Structure formats: C-alpha cells, structure tokens
Amino acid sequence: MKIELLGGYTKDELDSRIKKVAAAGKLSRYPGNVLEVLETCNDTEKNIKLVKRIIGMGHKSIIEHDYLVFALCDVTPIIEQTIIGNRLTSFTIKSRREVDFRNVGFYIPEFRDKSLNTHKDNEKLKEKYINHMKYLFNTYGDIVDLGINIEDARFVLPYSYHSNIIMGLDARELEKLIVYLVSGDVSKINDLKDLGLELLKLTKEYVPYLSESIDNQLEKASETNSKDPFEYLESVSARPKINVIDKPKLISYTPNSDDVIIKSSIMYHYQCDANTANKIIEDGIKKDHEFKEKLMDIILHKEERRELEQVQFTFQIPISLSILTHLTRHRMHSLLVPEFLPMWNFENYITPATIFSNEKALKLYNEAVHKNIQVLNEFKAEGVIEEDLVHFYLGCQMLNVITTLNARTAQWICRMRCCNKAQWQIRNIAKEVAKQIKEVSPLLGKGLGSTCVTDLICNEGKECCGLIDKLLEAKEKGQKIEL
What is the pTM of this model? Predict the structure, then answer.
C-alpha cells in the first residue's frame, strides 16, 4: 500500500489552502467583502490557530473549502468497498471490465488469533494463503485464456487483489474517514486501519489544523466504540440462515407517486395549497384527458426535476461483490450494505452465463469457488480471526442490499444502467427496478430506462450498441420494437 497526496503540499500551496479556510472562518464576523477578508489572512501560523479554534467550537463547515486529492496505490477491494460508501467523496478506480488483473499482485495479511496476537503459525499460514491466492489468480487467467471476457472472469478474483484509486475529498470528510478507519467498527481489519494511519500521517503534515481535532476524536472513539451495536438485536433473535433473493423486490413506496409528483409541481409553481392543486388537476383533465401524462413528461425532462425527489421507493436488491460498486457509486440514495463481518455464506455465489456455457471454464470456476470455501474453513479451524479472512471473499459472492431512492435518482440510475453497454448484472437489476416502479407509478415509469428508449437519444458515440438506429427506424415506420 502506498498513499500520496497529489498536489497542494508545497509551502505556497499549503499556505494558500489554509488561507482560504481561515477566510471562510472570518467571513461571517468581519467587515468587508470576501476578497477584503481574504486579504487579512496572510499569516499562516495565525490562520492555523484561528481555524483550530473555530473547528474546536464545532463549526466545521469552513474546512469543506479545503479539497485534497490522494493516490491510493495497491490497496485491496476491501478498502475500495469501504471508502466508496463515503457518500461525499469522489473516486476513480481502475476498471476490472477493461484491465486484465492476473498480474496486479495481492495483499498478504499477518494472521492473528482470537486474542488479536500474531498467530503462532503465522508464517505457515501465510505460505498457505499465498499459494491459494496464486491458484485463484491463475484460475482467473486460465478462464480468460479460454476466451471468457475479463468482465466475467473477474467474478473468481479474491478480494485480496491490488486496486488503484484516485480519491478526492474535502478536509471535513477526510477527518471523518480517518476516525472511522482508525477507531471505528472496521479498524480490526488491518488494511483498513493501515489506510487510516497513512492518511493520518499525511494529514498531520499537510492539513496541520486538523491534527488536534482528529486526536481528540480518536481518544473519544476508543472509549465509545467498543460496544457492538447489534448486541441487543442478537440477544433476542437468533441469526437466521442467509438467503439471497432471486431478483430486486420493491418493499415500500410513496403511495400515489404519480399524483404526488404532479401535485407538487403545481403547488410550488403556483404557490398554492393541496386543495387548489387538486382542483387544477381536475380542471386540466377536463380540458385534456392526457393532462397528467403530458405534465409528467415535462417534469421528467426538466433540468432540475426536483418534483421527482418528492417520492421514494425502497428495494431489497441481490447483487454480487464484483458489481456492488456499480450501485454504490450512485451517491444520492440511502444504501445499506452488510458489513464484511460476520462473514457471509460463501455458498451464495453467482456464475456468469459465459462461464456457465463453457464446460472447461465452468469446471475451473466451480473448483475455485469450492476450493476457496475449503481453505477458508481450514483457516477458521486454526483459530484465525475473521478480520484476517475477509480477503477470501470472491467477486462472485452474493449479498442482499437495501436502498431507498427518490424518483430522480431512479431515473438517473436507469438511464445509466439500463443501457446495453452497462455490465449485465447491474443492467438486469436496473431493468427490474424500472419495471417494478412502473407497476405502481406508470406515468413515472415511462421515463425510466436507457436514453435511447425514453428519449430516442444515445450518448455512447462510436461505442453505440446500435439499438438507437432500430428505434429511430421503427418510429419512422410507425412500428413498435419489443425490448
């Protein structure tokens, strides 16, 4: 693992960054406009003291003006999955759909026993682990060599492989992330804690006003984070068998979603109450029986579309680890992802169709999945703690997630993920989400799907799948294509 700050660390850059934060701290209480206030912040040491005092009082919005970009070299997908859950942080990640991963390398943990001490057979276990990981990576390569695309072969990759990420976040999010990684629930997983400590070291050097605040939070966290938040739940209910559902399921939604969207548009535009909005809808239908359909179509194509945010849909979604980031990276929905610990049922896994239809590839794939379960159980029998076994997860492992998304987010996700260029599992998920929303909200449902279907527009350029041409031709002939 290697973490570097990309820019912003020379003396002039550092002084400039701190100056902006100090000016933000002064602005609300000093006379003059923002540029005049900025000119009063030319002493870096005084600026640091001022910022420390302000954030010490809990006014941390000012440090959101200090944005930092990090290179995260050779980190695990355990790290990747964890930090992507930070909704206000930006990431660019090396694609497993586009890059062959057989030679990227992998993480090797120091194995510990139940007392969190180094395991007495640590070196022997590491050798066994290394041989097993090499076997899994070789299997991945063999499957690729059989003609399976890397997009599907990656489902057999273990969650030890080296990922590379560019991560951007403001200082407030950086502070939260460090505290979470160093002393939160995930801190017993060593590579997550190591990332937190590396970020902390860089922060002490290049974000000097944060050191004291982070140290104080780490001290408090060590006193308050020792209790398992699920202890009470598990004291009254035995843990049931983990069953992964077969397709997305709509759990709850805003009743009469179409009417709520349309009514909210009328209420905010005319500044009227709900009763008046209802009367306008009734009058509109009398004048034009397609009034609601036409108004919904206008709302679906507005620039802001805030009316769509007034209704929500909650889904339980089955998804593989390999594809989880395709859902997580859409920030504007409330996603509940099971934590890596306690470990899931490794018997719940998915096999890509391309592998399933290739006899040799399928044999290699199934052998690898079951060999992985066998070796994992052997490590458990040796008394190795689960925190050191999370890198045995494979990309094919399936889990259930819960998410609540408003209609605007649903529209955006469907535009991106219903496209034929999207990865097949997330495409199937998005299409099922669109279908189930359409069943309870038919007018909204007309606007859910890839842009070629909903708007007869394709933005893929040379990589277009060709469906748009068929749709345009069908429209010209007055025909309809079954999708």
Answer: 0.94
